Structure formats: structure tokens, C-alpha cells
């Protein structure tokens, strides 16, 4: 099932909109006439629109949740000069979407995917270590894995929450890693490969085919464990891959959160692992704070409190 009508293109002259959207808000209220109704927020990659449910509220209420991709049947209404959808039927999508169709529902990042994929190719081709080159070639040949790595967000709520966010995050670390190594030293190729592979487990921890969300497997195992399993699987495809290099890469995946209380069973134990850990922390925090400030400013200067980072943020002119 693919999408035909986008929020951007909905006009008052359209009578009906029957299509797929992501639910951003969902609330049930009672009108002055004592009639139960629902206010819904719907979005796709091009914008958001409000929806109302006036009929069969009890029946429809339990069929979807916030964050779900839903199939909507509705009539377009003009309410106080703003378009609204009056929804007559709504239900959660019960089939997976193709990865390519996800672009229709979530906004893109600042950089387009083509330029990110091109840069990824350039960085990987410039690597000198033949084993790491072979390993990343095996990664590239795994079409399913590559598609996920290129299209998934880096997280569902905290940072790089957009199609292609995982690739953007990993590449940003690889670029900063090359700069860092040129100044403070270290093995450039190990830092690049570590940056690209550190969050590879997110391709199984998360799912995007019915909206950005955690998989059951992801909740049970987490992306560090899953990352180790994916890495082992890739390494098995490269005949003769050196044992020590296997342990080095695995250690980078295992230690990239830096501390036990942040989910890493081991602290980083060589300079390249320390570099990858700090680059991960730097890129995810800076990006996460920027994304928070974009949508959550309390006034012109200060953001709302960020619960995970435990701070409010200040906007410089
Ligand atoms: Fe991570
Ligand atoms: Fe990361």
C-alpha cells in the first residue's frame, strides 16, 4: 500500500482524503453538547493536519495509538480558515511498508540521502586496510542490511530522528574521527570502520516499517548485543579475517557507550575505542540538543527541560 495524497497537497476543494498518515496526537474529549469526540494530529513527510472523529468514537478509539501509521477515510472541512479532516474510519496499518515508502511519512534530515550515500562510498573506498575494506564490502553486498543502515533513524526520540539518521550519525563520526586522528594520532581505518559499525545493531533494535519504534528483539537484547551478533556474521563472510582485528572491532561496538551505566559492559580500552566513544557522545548530544531546541523552546532564549540530558538549553543569537 503506498501513499498518494500528501498533507502539502490537501486543499479545500478536495472532498475526501483516504490515505495513510502517522498519528502525532490522540485525545478524547466531550463537547458542550455532551458528545464524545476525538482530536487527532496526523502527519507525513510534507506537513501536519488536524483530524476530528465525531462518530463511532468508542469503536474507533482502541484501533490505533500515537506513533502508528494509520489508514484514514475522511472528509476535508474548513474550520476557522484551517483545513481539518473529519474522519469516518481509521485503523492501524496491518501490513509492513517497503523501506523506500517510509520516506513518505517522516521528514528528511538536512542533507539529502544521495549525498550521504556518495560520501559513504568515498570514505570506504579511501580506506587502506585490506581486511577492513573486505569487511565493508561484505556489509555493502548485504542488500537488506545496507538498505536498513541507509534509511533508519539513529533513535526513535533522542537524536537523528529522521530517515537516513543512522547513516548521517555514523558518517559524521567517521569524518570527525579522521580529523581527530590527524591531530591526536591513532589508526585511521579502525576509527572509520568503528564509526560506521558502532550502531549497526540499531538495524535490528529498531523497525521503521510501521512507524519508528523498537522491535521486541531490540528491547530484549539492545543494539550493542545485536551489533556484536551482526558484526560476527559479517566477519564470517570474509575468509581468514584476523582474530585480533575481530576483537578490536567487537570491543569498539561493546564499549562505545563508555560506561556500564550507559549500557556498555566494558570501558573503552585502547585509544581508537576511546575516540569512537567520545565522537558518538559528541555527535548524538549536539544533534539531540539541536533537535530538542527546534521543537521545544519555552521562550525565545531557553528550551524546555530535556529529561534525558537533565538541562535546559540556551539559544545564542
Ligand atoms: Fe549506540
Ligand atoms: Fe551512536
Task: Chart the SSEs and their pairings.
Layout: E1 16-30, E2 36-44, E3 47-53, H1 57-61, E4 69-79, E5 82-92, H2 113-125, H3 130-141, H4 143-151, H5 165-184, H6 188-197, H7 202-205, E6 206-207, E7 213-214, H8 216-236, H9 243-255, H10 271-295
The protein binds fe (ii) ion (2 copies).
Description of the molecule:
It is a single chain. The protein has 317 residues and is α+β, with helices and mostly antiparallel strands. It folds into 2 domains: 7-92, Nucleic acid-binding proteins (OB fold (Dihydrolipoamide Acetyltransferase, E2P)); 99-295, no CATH class. Helix content is 42%, strand content 18%. The chain is built from 10 helices and 7 strands. The strands form 2 sheets. It has a 5-stranded mixed beta barrel. It has a two-stranded antiparallel sheet with strand order 6-7. Helix 6 crosses helix 10 (271-295). The longest helix has 25 residues, at 271-295. The radius of gyration is 22 Å and the shape is elongated. It starts with 15 loop residues before the first strand and ends in a 22-residue tail after the last helix. The relative contact order is 0.09. Bound molecules: fe (ii) ion (FE2) (2 copies). One fe (ii) ion is lined by residues 169, 198-199, 280, 284.
Helix content: 40-55%
Report how far apart the termini are.
Answer: 45 Å
Outline the low-pLDDT stretches: none
The average pLDDT score comes to 93
What does the overall shape look like? elongated
